[in-house]
Amino acid sequence: MISSTMQHLLLLLLIFLTTQHFIIPSLSEKCNPQDKKALLQIKKELGNPTELSSWNPTTDCCEHRKWAGVFCTETGTYRVDNLDLSDFNLPKPLPIPPSIFTNLPYLSFLYISRIPNLVGPIPPSISNLAKLKYLYIIHSSISGEIPNTLSHIKTLLTIDFSHNKLTGPLPESLSSLPNLLGISFDDNQLTGTIPESYGSFSKLTSFTLSTNRLSGKIPASLAKLNLAFVDLSQNTLEGDASVFFGSKKSTQKIWLDRNLFSFNIGKVGLSKNLEAIDLRNNKIYGTLPKGLTKLKYLSKLNVSNNDLCGEIPVGGKLQRFDESCYAHNRCLCGSPLRACKA
């Protein structure tokens, strides 16, 4: 039988643990205590939104789908490596929870999306996520400059900050990331030029910077890139954007519309994989290359509002595009436009 003294001690211990909000973890719980503490702090920093009601300190954060948006490694020790924070209604404007960057060292995938009240900058402390591979902070209201410290995360494969209110220049230092496959900074307020250093990306396949305030000439160094998808539309960029074309490249989509580009389109090489080309509203000149007729995957073409001349090549899919796709050029003619003069 337990003595009265022991009962008294046990009672005091129980009161202490309760008042300190300590949780005695189950012996079978997989969730690392440090990770659980970090997640609960993140929930607090977000104002305890109802969307995180499943983040209950009495349950296992690594149990499959128990905590919304939380996933853990399943080999060795269980650690939170995947965090998805999406579609929240925050009680007031709040910054990105700092605990994400300081207390979840095993994150490899971070997805923050569609949180209109998420404001403020991306903190330099993001570099603490030394294992991060996939970084998405999209459709929110974050602002300020893109931190140079991103270049310290050598594991990064994808960076997507689209549809926010970011300002300032593109960080030159991003080109030092050895494994980067994709950059998407669409629909922000970025300014300045595309850095010359971006031509040194060795694995980049997707490069999208549309709907910003970028200006200046395209660096010739970008000719070294072999991009599957490039979208620089709706900026005030200028110069020779033919660097994105090439018969030996694997390019599928080129969207350069609504800029100030000027180059001879008749001299570009064409990737056999091209599916979409949008060059409208630029200062592109020359005649359309006959190689366009050989593109069997081409489903979109718009070269309107340029300085093109000559006859539209006959064949392939070129006559399937309507007149608006060729309209408002200096002297372009042939089907589906008016017939060329003899």
From TrEMBL:
It comes from the Eukaryota. One of its GO terms (biological process) is defense response. Residues 1-21 form the signal peptide. Residues 33-73 form the Leucine-rich repeat-containing N-terminal plant-type domain. Its main location: membrane. It is a peripheral membrane protein. One of its GO terms (cellular component) is membrane. Keywords: Cell wall, Disulfide bond, Leucine-rich repeat, Membrane, Plant defense, Repeat, Secreted, Signal. InterPro entries: Leu-rich_rpt, LRR_dom_sf, LRR_N_plant-typ, PGIP. The keyword Protein biosynthesis does not apply. It is found in: Membrane; Secreted, Cell wall. Belongs to the polygalacturonase-inhibiting protein family. PANTHER family: POLYGALACTURONASE INHIBITOR, POLYGALACTURONASE INHIBITOR 1. This is Leucine-rich repeat-containing N-terminal plant-type domain-containing protein. It comes from Trifolium subterraneum (Subterranean clover).
